[in-house]
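B., you asked whether I could sanity-check this one before it goes into the benchmark set. Here's the sequence:
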Amino acid sequence: MANTTDLLKQHLLFCNLSDEQMAQVGRHSRIVSYAKGSHLFEQGDAATHFFYLVEGQVKLSIYSASGDEKVIEVIKPGGTFAESLMFRDAPYYPVACQMLLDSRLVSIESRAFKLLLRESVDTCLAMLADLSKRLHGLVSEIDNLSLHSALCRVASYLSAQAPEQTLEFDLNVQKQVLASRLSVKPETFSRLIKQLCSDGLIELNGPRVKVLNPNGLRALARSCSQDMESFTDSFYLSS
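And here's what the prediction gave me:
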């Protein structure tokens, strides 16, 4: 089985570190495994580590005072999360992290890695690029939630998931989780999927989705984003 440094070298954030630096990261990292349904941390827990997902699937969620859940992000293998808290010196995790599948992760001590960043400009730039990409995604999500219909949000998600070659993929995220991620109720999500099927845009067979009319689905998704492209561009130019 691969050790922590072998696993971390596969990720852009760590591939530019020297052998000595990787060994230092390894001394402050460990591989952890969690069963489906278990929690890695709760909202408000002390934020001492960030994580690299090797296998499985996890969700990051926030909860209202009444207990309602909003899924912020679904992390897939190869993804990292909670690293931005290093730069804010945030004492607590602002979200909860739960396993959607049996998962294996590398847990990295944030304070030790922050000290290491002072020695590696390339790693700093790689982390900045990754965080900027996520910021762009969050701005796009605010755009979607504020101005676009639920149908547009579902169409945009499906269009983004479909491989260009086969146009077929599995909805490998639980319906309730995906609905929360898109800010729609599960029953609304099911109704919209049926509508897209009736319109001849997709075909659904269990978890398997086949895009029948890729141009039509992309056109529906694009119609949701064109109105706010100038806003998004101006946001980044002024940031």
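One thing to flag: DSSP finds ten helices and eleven strands in the chain. Otherwise nothing jumped out at me.
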